[in-house]
Amino acid sequence: MLRYLTAGESHGPALTAVMEGIPAGLQISASYIDEQLARRQQGYGRGGRMKIEKDRVQILSGVRGGYTLGSPVTLQVQNKDWVNWEPYMGVELADYEPKRVSVPRPGHGDLAGVLKYGHDDIRNVLERASARETAARVAVCSLARRFLEHYGMEITGHVVQLGSIKANSKSQSINLIKESIKTSELLCADPEAEAAMKKEIDSARERGDSLGGIFEIIAANVPVGLGSHVQWDRKLDARLAFSLMSIQAIKGVEIGLGFTAAVLPGSQVHDEIFSSPGGYTRGSNNAGGIEAGISNGQKIVLRAAMKPIATLYRPLRSVNMSTGAGAEAAVERSDICAVPAAAVVGEAVVAYELAAAFLEKFGGDSIAEIDFRFNNYLEQFGVKQGN
Ligand SMILES: Cc1cc2nc3c(=O)[nH]c(=O)nc-3n(C[C@H](O)[C@H](O)[C@H](O)COP(=O)(O)O)c2cc1C
Ligand SMILES: C=C(O[C@@H]1CC(C(=O)O)=C[C@@H](OP(=O)(O)O)[C@H]1O)C(=O)O
After folding, report:
1. Which residue ranges make up the annotated binding site for NADP(+)?
2. Looking at the CA of 337, which ligand is closest?
3. Percentage, residues of the chain above pLDDT 90
4. Which sites bind FMN (predicted)?
5. What's 8's domain CATH number?
6. Mapping DSSP to helix (H, G, I), strand (E, B) and coil, where does residue 290 land?
7. Nearest C-alpha to atom 1 of ligand 2 is from which residue?
8. Which of 52, 103, 264, 285 has the most crowded CB, counting CB atoms within 10 A?
């Protein structure tokens, strides 16, 4: 079983993650993980924090000589901002007052979290609700990403909508998307739309407002047979949706045609089946690569909708929880828009779910053992998988 936990406060000393279930013998390096961490930090529209942080991973357990041991892998990402927060965030002897937050921000975890946990300082909630946590997730899910790469799979995320601006990405192949987003500040494969998106972000910033958007994740070379129709919690589509929805501010997930499938007749939705020398081909991929909770061998295509950032520099109305009086919501230093960063987190959590499902089907304790099982499986389709 592949599982992970993350820990750490946004302005605490560090974020930590532990992953268990990664087999022995997977080649991995800190620089591979750092590359993903750097991608997560990019994006036009982010706030001042990203100028402070330069996320780097420390591997604390489970890896020796560049290869996983099969034991739990512990990763840590230091918060450079900690030096500015140490007096207020300590486990003991902290002086909370200067950083106390009393007015909840609509849309953040502030009010619900304080009521649920009985805190008298909103900071005790926001520190963990913060999407700073996603640095730990991207780090730890890089292990899953590396594992999938070993079996020839690749995962690409790109921004398809920002606020009201839509990218024209329908006809683009995965290679074109990968090429275009290399130089894009917004992880958008459509340069014309990207220019308009930047203007939209500038305008939101001037108005003291914020923006959301939609990103798409494509997973290529996923074999037939991950996930299962036989039980609700083994369905691959459900598990991918759960993980994507667990990312801060994600409020909707689509698979394949998604919501559009609901308004079209069946004849325009379902992907026709044809026989070919090596097996079967499909006339289209409206299902997004998953049928009955099982990967069907086509590309897996997912989209996630991110709501606008909750913290507004022109704050919404709220209530001071210390006095009960009406007040403007707290203003914490904040991003204006973080959809590109969320797309990188999306890639990471998709990698985790696919690796977990792959291990359930082909799992063993070492890469060599899994190679053997996977190759045997592919042989029935006349395919041999290299490394
Ligand atoms: C990469 C990323 C960066 C974010 N940055 C901010 C931010 O700077 N300010 C903010 O208020 N919310 C930000 N959010 C969103 C909040 O973390 C999120 O809205 C909050 O935790 C409440 O959770 P919910 O939106 O899922 O209900 C960010 C989310 C992501 C994925
Ligand atoms: C720190 C990150 O994102 C943070 C997510 C976040 C929130 O409320 O979710 C609020 C901001 O934190 P701060 O107030 O310290 O600037 C973002 O910068 C990160 O992505 O690494």
Report:
1. 40, 46
2. 1
3. 91
4. 128-130, 248-249, 292, 307-311, 333
5. 3.60.150.10
6. strand
7. 132
8. 103
102 lines ligand 1 (CB under 6 A): no
Instruction: Enter the tokens of residue 200.
Output: 């939209």
Q: ∠ CA(357), CA(363), CA(367), 5° rounding?
A: 115
> Once rounded to an integer, what is the mean pLDDT over residues 66-78?
98
Decide if 373 is inside a domain. yes
Distance, in Å, from the CA atom of 322 to the CA atom of 121, rounded to the nearest integer, reads 9
- Mean pLDDT score of the chain: 95
Q: How far is the CA of 257 from the centre of ligand 2 (A)?
A: 32
* Residue 96: inside a domain: yes
The answer to whether residue 386 is domain-embedded is no
Give the domain extent around 245: 3-381
Answer whether 335 contacts ligand 2 (Cβ < 6 A): yes
Quote the pLDDT of residue 384. 52
10 lines ligand 1 (CB under 6 A): no
387, part of any domain: no
Indicate the number of domains in the chain.
1
What number is the average pLDDT over the span 342-351? Answer: 98
Distance 149 CA to ligand 1 centre (A): 29
Q: Tell me, yes or no, if the pTM score tops 0.95.
A: yes
Calpha distance 1→24 (Å, rounded):
14
ipTM for the complex shown? 0.99
For ligand 2, say whether the CB of 333 is within 6 Å of any of its atoms. Answer: yes
| CA gap 187, 340 in Å, rounded | 6
CA–centroid distance, 333 to ligand 2, in Å, is 8
Q: What would the pLDDT profile of 216-259 be if each residue is shown by its tens digit?
A: 999 999 999 999 999 999 999 999 999 999 999 999 999 999 99
Q: Do 278 and 381 touch, CB atoms closer than 8 A?
A: yes
Angstrom distance (rounded) from CA 21 to CA 256:
29
